[in-house]
Amino acid sequence: MNIFPHHLYGSSITTEETASWFRNAPLPSQSNGSCGTDVNEHVVRFGPAMTLVGILSRPEDKAGSKAVPCIILLNGGLLPHLGPNDLYVHLAREMARSGCWVLRFDFWGQGDSEFFFSGRNSAHANASATSEAMDLMERMYGQTKFVLAGFCAGADVVLDVLKRDNRVSGSVLINPMFQVQSNRQSAAEFEKRILGRLYRQQMRSLRSWLRLFLGFSSWRKVMRHLVCRVLDARRSGFAVAEPTQMIQDMRGVPTHIIVSEGSKAWDVCHALLEPALKKWQELRNISIRKFFGTDHLFTPLAARQMLIDDICSWVIACMRS
């Protein structure tokens, strides 16, 4: 059973103790671009008119190896290259300690990157920016193999690049939405599925029933919303065709799909992939990892660390195969 920090209750920390910690905290070294004894980081600019900005993390005092794929981390939505809750920062450094080169950058018009009008929609522009990142690593550092990792909307960019560029040798999809949000009707149906699932979870929760019997919740409101939401979820009858085209677009490239229980991606993946689960199990290049007890952004520190460990283990196993 996984126990996350937000489920634990301990002694409180006073404001004076927090201020004392900051006063006594050691200052970070600014002599070079290293973020530790074994990782080096520096800023890179690339793309048309040098409008794209990113951070390259690499092993300290170690030349790049063409046999080791370069990891490129793609933004989710409007998030910068830090990732949700600094996930990409810690992931990039952990992968660099394992011997990988990791590039995380901002898409055009986001974070540190400048706006660049390419005459394309945002999806194609982001895919083009990713190709520019791969061109940079190939031209400057001799990298020819790449593993793309994307969070939420960034996972859709990964799939778009995957079917167009043969240099991609692996992909990690974190809470992918598979472009469901672009369809309002589909998004509304998934909202019903999500609410129905959450209400069913509350029905199985002893704490929720205890609050109800102690009078902290309104019986009338709970029962009305509970019945309506569960019935709406069952009556929606929403079905999605088997994602054969999506499987074909992956071109047999090793793909690792990660979904968290508190995310819409949990229901999206179930609706999209359940009809093809048996077929997917026969495809050894595709794996699905489920994280229970955490939200869409993997906010608890324990959940974030588990996610980093899972991605690092998969990438290392992918490199050895």
Give a short overview.
With 321 residues, this protein is α/β, with parallel strands linked by helices. Helix content is 43%, strand content 17%.
How does this structure look, described?
With 321 residues, this protein is α/β, with parallel strands linked by helices. The protein folds into two domains: 39-178 and 243-320, Alpha/Beta hydrolase fold, catalytic domain (Rossmann fold, 3-Layer(aba) Sandwich), CATH 3.40.50.1820; 184-235. The protein is 43% helix and 17% strand. The chain contains eleven helices and eight strands. The chain has helices at 15-24, 87-97, 122-141, 153-162, 184-203, 206-213, 219-235, 244-249, 264-273, 277-282, 301-320, and strands at residues 39-46, 52-59, 70-74, 102-105, 146-151, 168-174, 255-262, 286-295. It has an eight-stranded mixed β-sheet with strand order 1-2-4-3-5-6-7-8, sandwiched between helices. α2 packs parallel to α11, α3 packs across α4 (153-162) and α5 packs across α7. The longest helix is centred in the middle third of the chain and has 20 residues, at 122-141.
